[in-house]
Amino acid sequence: MNYQFEWTPVLSQLDRFADGAAMTLALSFGSILLGTLVGTAGAIAAAFGGPWLQRAARVYVEAIRNTPFLIQLFIIFFGLPTVGLQIDAITAAVIAMTVNLGAYSTEIIRAGLQAVHRSQLEAAAALGMTRWQLIRHVALVPAFEKVYPALTSQFTLMMLTSSVVSAISVEELTAVASQIDSQTFRTFESYILVMFIYIGLALLLRAAFALIGNLVFRRRRVVARARKIARTARVAPLAHAELTPAVAGSAK
User: Fold this and answer.
1) Percent of the chain having pLDDT more than 70?
2) Backbone phi, psi, residue 169, to 5°
3) What value does the mean pLDDT of the chain take?
4) What pLDDT does 119 receive?
5) In angstroms, rounded to a whole number, what is the distance separating the alpha carbons of residues 92 and 168?
6) How far apart are CA 89 and CA 166, in angstroms?
7) 169 Ramachandran zone, left/alpha/beta (phi>0; psi -120 to 50)
8) 37-46, 122-131, 164-173: lowest mean pLDDT where?
9) Are 20 and 173 a contacting pair, CB within 8 Å?
10) Could you say which of 104, 129, 236, 240 would form a disulfide bridge with 133 (CB–CB 3.0 to 4.6 Å)?
11) Do residues 180 and 13 lie in contact, with contact meaning Cβ atoms separated by under 8 Å?
12) Distance between CA 61 and CA 100 in Å, rounded?
C-alpha cells in the first residue's frame, strides 16, 4: 500500500466542515421537533382514535417504514414540482425527514401509550376527565417517560440519516465532504474526518437528550417517590395501632 495520508488540504477546509455540521444539526433539530409532533398525533390516533383514524395511522406508518428514505426524499423534491408545488432543497429535506421520523415516532409513542395501565385510564374517566384531559395528563407524560430512550435513539439515527439529503444538493456535512474530496482528491482524509465529526455529533446529541430527560422526568420521579414515602408513613402508625391491642391481649 503506497497511499500517503496528507491532512493539510483537508484540515484547511475546517470552516466548511463546520458549516456543514451546522446545517446537519439545523436539519436534525427542525425534523426532530416537527417529527415528534407528527408522531404524537399519529400515536394518539392509533391508540385512541376511531377505526378510520387508526387505519390512516397504520397506512402512514407502514408506507414510510417499508420504503427507502431516498425514495421519499425524491418524491418530495422532484415529484411535488410536477404538480405545481415548488420547494427548495432545504425545505424538501426537512419535510422528508419530518415525515420519516414521524412514522417511526408514531410507533414508539403508541407503544408507550399502550403500556399505560388500563386501570389508570378508567380511574381518570371515573373522575370526570374529558378524553383530551385523560390523554394529556394520564397517558402522554408517562408514555413519553417510558419510551424516551428509544425515541431519542431514533432522533440520533435521524441525524445520521440526514446525510442522504446530500443527494438533492443540500450542503450538509456529507455534501461538504464530497465537494472537498472532488477538489483535493483526498478521499480517505475527507471521509475519515467526517466520520469522526458524525461520531462527535451523535455523542453530543445523546448527552443533550440524557440531560433533558433528567431535567424533565426527574421531578416526576421525585414526586412519585415522595408520595410513596408519605403513604408508607401513614400506613405504619395505623398498623402499629391495630397491632398493639392484639399484643396486649395475648400478653394477658
Assistant:
1) 88
2) 70, 25
3) 89
4) 79
5) 9
6) 9
7) left
8) 122-131
9) yes
10) 129
11) yes
12) 9
- Locate 89 and state its grid cell: 432543497
Residue where the block lists cell 448527552: 207
SS3 of residue 77 by DSSP: helix
Name the one residue in this structure whose C-alpha cell is 418530495: 76
Q: What's the rounded Cα separation, in Å, for the pair 42 and 61? A: 9
Q: Cell 378508567, residue?
A: 122
Range 173-179 contact pairs with CB under 8 angstroms and sequence separation of 24 or more:
173/17, 173/20, 173/21, 173/23, 173/24, 173/197, 173/198, 174/20, 175/20, 176/13, 176/16, 176/17, 176/19, 176/20, 177/17, 177/20, 179/16
Number of Cβ within a 10 Å radius of residue 246: 9
E-state strands within 117-243: none
Of the candidates 2, 7, 4, which has an alpha carbon nearest to the alpha carbon of residue 184? 7
| Residues 20, 198 contacting (CB under 8 angstroms) | no
Euclidean distance between CA atoms 64 and 58, whole angstroms: 10
Q: Which residues contact 178 (CB under 8 A, 6 or more apart)?
A: 166, 190
For 236, the grid coordinates are 405504619
On whether the CB atoms of residues 77 and 87 are closer than 8 A, the answer is: yes
Buried b (16+ CB within 10 A) or exposed e, 5-43: eeeeebeebeebbeebbebbbebbebbbebbbebbbbbb
What 3-state class would DSSP assign to 170? coil
Residue 130 has a CB neighbour count (10 Å cut-off) of 10
The per-residue pLDDT for 216 is: 87
